[in-house]
Amino acid sequence: MEEVKESHQKRWIHLKKVLERPGPFTHPEFEPSPDILDFILSTCKILIIGAGGLGCELLKDLAMMGFKHIDIIDMDIIDLSNLNRQFLFRHKDIGVSKAQVAANYINARIAGCQVTPHCCPIEDKKEDFYRGFHIIVCGLDSITARRWINGMVVSLLNYDDNGVLDQSSIIPLVDGGTEGFKGNARVILPGMTACVECTLDLYPPQVTYPLCTIANTPRLPEHCVEYVKVVQWPKENPFGVALDGDDAQHTTWIYEKALERANQFNIHGVTFRLVQGVVKNIIPAVASTNAVISAVCATEVFKLATSCCTPLNNFMVFNDIDGIYTYAYEAEKKDNCTVCSNIPHPVDIDDPCKMKLKDLIDFLCENIKFQMKNPGLTTTIDGKSKTLYIPTIKMIEERTRPNLSKTLIDLGLRDGQEIVVADVTTPTSVIIKLRYTISDVEIN
Amino acid sequence: MSSPAPKSPEQNEKSKKYDRQLRLWGDHGQKLLENSKVCLINATALGTEILKSLILPGIGSFTIVDGEKVSEEDIGSNFFLENDSVGLPRAHVATQCLLELNPDVRGDYIDESAEHIISNTQNFFKNFDVVIATAVHEKVLLPLSKHLWECDVPLVVCHSIGFLGYIRLQIKEHTVIEAHPDSESPDLRLDKPWTALKGYLDSINIEQLDQKEKSHVPPLAILHYYLTKYKNSHNGALPSKRAEKEVLKQMIRDSGHSEEGNNRFILEENFEQALHYANSCVTPRPIPDHVKAILDDDSCTNLTQNSSSFWIMSAALRELVQAEGELPVKGTLPDMAADTLSYVTLQNIYRKRAEHHAESVYRRAQQIARNLGLPQDWVTESEVKYFCKHASELHVIRGSCIANEYQKSNLDLSSYLEDPDCLIFYYIILRGLERFISEYNVYPGQLDDQVEPDLLKLKGIIGKLLNEWGYSHVLRDERVHEVCRYGGAELHSVSAILGGCAAQEVIKIITHQYKPLNNTFIYDAINTTSATFCL
C-alpha cells in the first residue's frame, strides 16, 4: 500500500491554504509552495525553553501548527499548584519531570510528532546544542534565565572582519511572559532588533522590604513574614536545613512565627496564603492568559518559519482586566547594549583612589544597565592576567576577598583598563572599560 | 493581649491546586465559578480551546452541543480530538478529551445541531449561566441570539478565520463589584476627616516633635497638620490649584528638611510621602460619574421583587450617600513610612469607619429587602462589605442583542470609517462573509479554484451591505482578498489566542469581577493588533 505523503494529508488543509496561496500581507520573500509545509513538517527544528504554564501551551500550539521536531527543556518537576493551567499534566504526574511528561503526552496525542525532552537547567547545554535550532521560543518566569538565553543567542552571532553581521548566524528568539491577566510577547532577531538586555528596564523591580522596616517598624503582614524569613529562620534554624518554600512544615513554621509577631504589633492579615506568597514570591497565574500569550508566540514562530506574514516588530503587551487590550510597538535596540552591541562598556569612575573593588561590584549589581547578581572580575595587567574577584569558587573567593577592600588604584587598574565580568545573567562575559573622570591621577 | 495563634490551616487539596488563581479572584470568585454551568455550541478548535481555559480553573459543568462527525480536517486544527476518532460524533469525542483536564468538572454532550435544539427544545439553553457559540452562522445565530436575549442568558459568539478573530458579547445587564483597577489613588478623606480621624491627627503637633519622633510620624499626620495651617491662613479653603498646592508643599518641605553633613539637606522619607499625597489627596474625592449613574439608574430608584442584590445594595448605598454626602470609606491604608503604633492606630481608624459605613448600608439594604417582601438573606453581610469596599469601582454594562445588530438598517459606523486602517473593516468583511455563507453555503475561497470568483462575489456582497447601512465607502481590496485566501481555514494558534480571550470574558461574566468586553472584539493576528467596538 502506498503511504500518503505527510503533507498531502487532509489534516493539514488549514495550513495549506495560507502556505500555498498568495496573499496581500505576506512577507516580501514569500513564495507560495507545498515546500513550506514540507519544511516545517520535516526539517524545521524548534526549541521550547520552559515546560510550565507557557511551555505546555507552546508545545501544543506548535505541534498543531505542523512543527514535528521540537525539543523542550525544563529542570522542574510537576507540583499540585501547576494543574490549574499546565494542562498536559495530571494528578498522577506530580513529582515527575515537566519536560518528560509534556513530551510524552504530545508524542502520544499528535501523530508523527517527535518531541525531545531535556530535564536539566538551560546552563547545562552548550553553544552547539543551541546552534542546532532554527527558532528558539521561551516560556519562562525567571528574568535571569531569560537574560542567559538572550546572551546565548547573541553569542552565536558571527561578524566578519568589518563588523558586518552574518545573517545566517541569527537564531530568532520569541519570548512570552505573563502575570495574572497581563502578558507580553516579543520577537527578537539577535543583533538586529532590541534584545532582552536592551529593554531590561521594562521588567518591574522586585518588591523588597528594607531591613530597618521589617525589624523595627513593621506595618504590613508582609513585613512580619519577611522578618521571620530573613532574621528568625537563620537564627533559630528550626529544621537544621535551608528554608524550602515547597516544604509545608517550613511554611507552617513561618506562618506561626509571623502570626505571633503580627499579634505582638497588632497587625492584621497574616494568612497562610499570604505567607506562601511572600516566602515563595508567588506570581498569580491563570490558564487563559497563558493560552493567549503562548498562542501569540506560536503564531510568530509560524510566521518566522514560513514567511506567510511579516512577523511582529517587535513587542506586544496584553491585558484583559478591563475589556481586552493589546498594544504592539517597536522596542528600541540600544546602541550601547551590554549584550548585543558588540562593544566594550565604559564605566565612569569619579575617584579611583577612593573607589574600592567592592564599590565597583555593587555598581554592577545596582546599575540599571548591568543589573548583575554575583559578578566575577578578571583583567590583564602588564600582559599578565589577574583575577580580581571570583565569588563562585570557594578557594578563589577566599584568596581574592582581600581585593574587595582595595581601591582601584591600589589594584593597579588604570584609566581605560578593560575588565572581563562574568555573571549568572549572561553565558558569555561582558567587557567593561574603566573611564576615570579626574584627569591626573597619581599612581604610586 | 493577643489571642493565641490558631492551628495552622494546612490547606486543602483544592485550594492548593487553584492557589495561583485564587490570588486573583479569591475564594468567593472561585465559588461562583464552581457553581457555573456553561454550554458550548460546536466543538471546533476555537470552541474546545475556550472550554479548556474554563475547565482548568474549575467551572462546575459544561455541555457540548454539536451534531457534526469528526473529520480529518478537524483533527488538524483541534487538539481535543483524537487521531483515531474520524467519523465519531464530535461532541462525544471532545467531551471525553476535555474531561481528562480536571476531575472536578462535570461534562456532557448532545449529538445534535444547535439548529435542531432551538426548534425542538426551546427551554434547553435557559439552564446555563453562559452559552458560547463558535462557527454559528446567521441562520442559527439570529434565532439563538433572540432567544437567549429574551431569557437573559449571556451569549458569547466567536469566530476564528485564518489570521482573523472575532468575539461578540451579548449580555442584557451585567454588574461588577470588584473591577480590580490597575491603579487607584488611596481613599484618605483628609479634605473632610471624620471625628475620630480628626481627633487623632489633631493630637500630633509636628512642630513640637523632636528629630527622632519627627522621622517616624505618619505622612498623613504631617499633611493634616500643614493642611490645617494652610486652611487657617486661607479662610478655611482647601488648596485646589497647582500653585496653591505648591504653597502647602513648601510648608511641608520647610519643616521636613534636616541637616546632614556639610550643608547637604535631605528630606525624611515620611515628609517625601506627605508631599506625594499632597498632590492627589487634599481635594474632595468626587463620586465617580459611573457610580453616580448607577445611583440614579431606574433599576436603583424603582426596585421590584425581581431586583438583584446588586440593585438593592445600590439603593442602600444611595441612601447613605444622601445622608452623608460621600461614598463609604474604603478602609484600607497604603503602606507609608511610620512607626508601627501610629500606623496601626491610623489603620484601625480607617477600618472602623469602613465597618461603620458597611453596617449602615447593610441595615438599609435589609430594610429595603424587607419592604419589598424579599427574604431576610437576599443580601448578605459579606456581600455588602465587598460592595462598600469597592463602591467607587462599581460598574454596570448594558449590552445589545446580536439579532438587532444584524437586522438594523442603519448601523452607525461613521466614526470608525474615517480611518482606513481601522479594524472595523474586518468586522464589515466578517458580516459580508456571514452573508456569503448564507447565500452559497461555503466559505469564500474554500475551493482552490474559486478564490478569484469568490473574491468578486464577496466584494459585491460587502458593497451591498455598506449601501444598506447608507455608506458609500469602498473597502481596500487587499483585506477582502486576504479573507478569501483563508478559505475558511482555522489556524490552531489563532484559535488558541481567541480561546484564551473568550474564556476570560466568560470568567468575568460568571464571577462578576473585572470589566468584560463591551461588546465586539476584533483580533488581527497579521499585525498582532486588536480593537473593541460597541455595536
UniProtKB/TrEMBL annotation, chain A:
The active site is at C212. The keyword ATP-binding applies. The keyword Membrane does not apply. Pathway: Protein modification; protein neddylation. It is an enzyme of class 6 (ligase). GO terms for cellular component: cytoplasm; nucleus; protein-containing complex. One of its GO terms (biological process) is protein neddylation. Pfam families: E2_bind, ThiF. GO terms for molecular function: ATP binding; NEDD8 activating enzyme activity. Transmembrane segments: none annotated. It catalyses: ATP + [NEDD8 protein] + [E1 NEDD8-activating enzyme]-L-cysteine = AMP + diphosphate + [E1 NEDD8-activating enzyme]-S-[NEDD8 protein]-yl-L-cysteine. CDD domains: Uba3_RUB. Keywords: ATP-binding, Ligase, Nucleotide-binding, Ubl conjugation pathway. Residues 349-437 form the E2 binding domain. Belongs to the ubiquitin-activating E1 family. UBA3 subfamily. Catalytic subunit of the dimeric E1 enzyme, which activates NEDD8. This is NEDD8-activating enzyme E1 catalytic subunit. The lineage of its organism: Eukaryota, Metazoa, Ecdysozoa, Arthropoda, Hexapoda.
From TrEMBL, chain B:
InterPro entries: APP-BP1 (IPR030667), ThiF/MoeB/HesA (IPR045886), ThiF_NAD_FAD-bd (IPR000594), Ubiquitin-activating_enz (IPR035985). One of its GO terms (molecular function) is NEDD8 activating enzyme activity. It holds the Pfam family ThiF. Signal peptide: none annotated. Pathway: Protein modification; protein neddylation. One of its GO terms (biological process) is protein neddylation. Residues 1-20 are annotated as: Disordered. Residues 18-530 form the THIF-type NAD/FAD binding fold domain. Residues 10-20 have a biased composition (Basic and acidic residues). Keywords: Ubl conjugation pathway. GO terms for cellular component: cytoplasm. Belongs to the ubiquitin-activating E1 family. ULA1 subfamily. This is NEDD8-activating enzyme E1 regulatory subunit. It comes from Sitophilus oryzae.
